[in-house]
Amino acid sequence: MATRTTADRATEDGTTEGRAPADGRTGTFLRVSIALQTLALFFQAATAGLLLSTSYGETLHGVGARVMYGASMLYVLAAVLAWRPGGGSPRPILYASGFLALASVQVVLGIAHVPALHVPLGVLMFGLSVLALARRTSKGATVKCPSLT
């Protein structure tokens, strides 16, 4: 078993010093899993409105909840795979695990019918997921601003 040198240390942007960035298949898998999670959360917002106005809204919202929770677990898996074999930063694992914890709280609040906490937490989760997706898809894309002088 080889020991890690300081040249193999992970940097904050997901690359490692001395190794190629974790961008190949594992990076794509991470982006796809975050996108799936974001879409599932958007679907949940839409079905929450249907829940109030139609008879089938509860069924759709329940199915969407299971898909969203599965997408959160997939995000954790993708973050682990991007970290270890890909040589990326372990920081996405922390984000994904925190999101899975929020999803767990969200499920409990939904089952307990506590909309005063369930709805704002859903909005927060959607915002955090969009932010994570934007950060992950903008990695490596550098925007140059013209000088004002």
Describe the structure.
The chain is mainly alpha-helical. The model is unreliable at 1-22 (pLDDT under 50). It is 67% helix and 0% strand. The chain is elongated and about 45 Å long. The protein has four helices and no strands. Helix 1 (25-53) packs antiparallel against helix 2, helix 1 packs antiparallel against helix 4 (115-137) and helix 2 packs antiparallel against helix 3.
Summarize, please.
This protein is an all-alpha fold and 149 residues long. It is 67% helix and 0% strand. 23% of the residues are buried.
The proportion of residues in beta strands is: under 5%
Largest sheet: none
Mean pLDDT comes to 82
* Number of helical segments with 4 or more residues: 4
> Low-confidence segments, ≥5 residues, pLDDT <50?
1-22
What structural class do you assign from the helix and strand content? mainly alpha
What is the tally of beta strands?
Answer: 0
Helix content: 55-70%
In whole angstroms, how far apart are the ends? 54 Å
Shape: elongated
SSE string: HHHH
Radius of gyration: 18 Å
Protein topology:
Elements: H1 25-53, H2 57-83, H3 91-111, H4 115-137
Helix pairs in contact: 1-2, 1-4, 2-3, 3-4
Descriptive keywords:
149 residues; mainly alpha; 4 helices; 67% helix; 0% strand; elongated; disordered N terminus
